[in-house]
Amino acid sequence: MTDTWLSEEEWLAGMVRAYVGCSVLLTDPADRVLLLKATYRGRWQFPGGAMDPGEGPAECAARELREETALVAPELRLLVVEWREPIPRQGRNAHPAVQFMFDGGTVPADTPLTLQADEVADYGFFPPAQAAPLLHPSAADRLTRALHVRRTGGTALLRSPGYLG
After folding, report:
1. Distance between CA atoms of 4 and 117, rounded to whole angstroms?
2. Distance of CA 2 to CAs 5, 6, 8, Å?
3. Whole-model pTM?
4. Beta strand 33-38 with 120-126: parallel, antiparallel or unpaired?
5. Which helix (H) or strand (E) is 140 found in, with range?
6. Which residues contact residue 125 at a Cβ distance below 8 angstroms, ignoring those fewer than 6 apart?
């Protein structure tokens, strides 16, 4: 009888690899959502970005919020996990992505933001109905679900087609 176990290298080579990003839902007292206009992308987006080696999702979200806006979220609660399909045109770099969205709470309307000049061109607080069309449709769905679970508790799991943003 032949042993059919894979070597660790063969086993790891067959595992799914995924990009990991983290974002923060932050609102003002009027329940307007904070969105950022990136210098490198056409659409508005949530504060957030890619996870660095050695950090966890909540650490990434807190770091990105701090880097992009100079805001410090006292506590982050997981709201949404979004699984994105790979983007075929990325060829051998086509991997799925996992996006974690955390609740950053509410900040006073007059809270000053210090924008990360090389990455963030502008920001605004938008009512959800105005925020949604500014976002990629899948990110708009993430916003809707995040606001819902923020009110009701729990966590949402989404699946969306591959996209950047």
Report:
1. 55
2. 9, 12, 17
3. 0.90
4. antiparallel
5. helix 137-152
6. 27, 28, 30, 32, 33, 34, 35, 109
- The b/e string for 82-114 (b: 16+ C-beta within 10 A; e otherwise) is bebebbeeeeeeebebbbbbbbbbebeeeeebe
Q: How confident is the prediction along the chain (165 residues), in pLDDT tens digits per residue?
A: 556 788 899 888 888 888 999 999 999 999 999 999 999 888 999 999 999 999 999 999 999 999 999 999 888 999 999 999 888 888 888 888 999 999 999 999 888 899 999 999 999 999 999 999 999 999 999 999 999 999 999 999 999 887 766
Q: Residue 145 corresponds to which amino acid?
A: R
The two tokens of residue 70 are 């100079």
The one-letter amino acid at 84: R
